[in-house]
Amino acid sequence: MSVSVEGSDQDFDLNIAPIIDCFTVLIAYLLISASFLSIGFFDVGVSTTSEVSAPSTPLAPQEMMSVGIGEGKTLEVRLSGPETTTISVPGKGGSRDYNTLLATVKAARSRWPALTDASVKADPQVEYREIIQTIEQLKKEVPKVFVGE
Amino acid sequence: MRKKKKFSNEADQNEEMSLQITSMADIFMIILVFLLKSYSTGLSNVSPSQGVILPEARAQALMKDALKVEILKDSVLVDQKPAVSLKNFAFTDAAKDPTASSGETSAEISKLLMAQRKNMAGNEVDSHLLLLADQRTPYATLRRVMNSAASAGFVDLQLAVVQAD
């Protein structure tokens, strides 16, 4: 680079070594503090039991689905509405049969298109991992999932 | 990097080498921009606490800015503050809320959550809560934390999971 100062030429080079030093420190800091975990989220509602006053006129039966997670490997799908049915999904190969659960939910949805909610209940000792796996399957077919009573 | 060699003559093997760091600066600049971009869009603020193993799943919901509750092996944290002690993911009897009819809430968690809710500005009060629970947490503990959250007005939960490949 050439700069003319009062008629005389001066050649100088930009010293980028300190810039490189700064970059190295910044990159090292960002690499150390970076989180390489990719975190996802499930939107769920909390089902709570609250006392509500009984309506004066009886309401039409509402389609509802609840999935029970037992301490064994069995899943229980309870459908209530115009009729009430309970479908038991036994475990398969030492684990819960989520494929059959999904097929059951799909069949229920095709039968009752107004069915948009599902609630998940579990036995006290069932681990959170299994609850999440069940929610993951339900979310494929049902837009709203509630957890709790 | 360019290596420049000058040989004045065969006898005198005086070697001059200058490191071309302009291209290195370019590379560093690209890495820096990439890291800064991933840092700003990353969810570093929801990274779980030490020892928490989040369950794996494929989840596609977007993260909402919400209050964070974590369930660890030995405690429940509300906004990074210890709310109640646990013993191997289970509540001790002291943590049971004596005022609750069913006994299925925790007074300490509800109190902290209500305090946080009061701090939220007027109309901005949100019912969303971000829950980071260890994958080994039993449903009994999870239910009590969720009931406590619901009693404080947080009825919409975001369950954090590690994205499966």
List keywords for this structure.
heterodimer; A: 149 residues; alpha/beta; Nucleotidyltransferase, domain 5; 2 domains; 6-stranded mixed beta sheet; two-stranded antiparallel ribbon; 8 strands; 29% helix; elongated; B: 165 residues; 7-stranded mixed beta sheet; 3 helices; 7 strands; 28% helix; 21% strand; disordered N terminus
Please characterize this protein's 3D structure.
The complex is a heterodimer of chains A (149) and B (165). Chain A has 3 helices and 8 strands; from the N terminus they run ββαββββαβαβ. By secondary structure, chain A is α/β, with parallel strands linked by helices. In chain A, helix 2 (98-111) packs parallel to helix 3. Chain A is elongated and about 95 Å long. Chain B has 2 domains: 1-42; 45-163, no CATH class. In chain B, 28% of the residues lie in helices and 21% in strands. At the A-B interface, helix 1, strand 3 and helix 3 of A face helix 1, helix 3 and strand 7 of B. Strand 3 (39-47) of chain A pairs antiparallel with strand 7 of chain B.
Question: How would you summarize the topology of this molecule?
Answer:
The complex is a heterodimer of chains A (149) and B (165).
Chain A: E1 2-5, E2 8-11, H1 17-33, E3 39-47, E4 64-69, E5 75-80, E6 85-89, H2 98-111, E7 117-122, H3 128-139, E8 144-148
Parallel strand pairs in A: 3-8, 4-7, 7-8
Antiparallel strand pairs in A: 1-2, 4-5, 5-6
Chain B: H1 22-41, E1 56-57, E2 67-71, E3 75-78, E4 81-87, E5 90-91, H2 107-119, E6 128-133, H3 139-151, E7 156-163
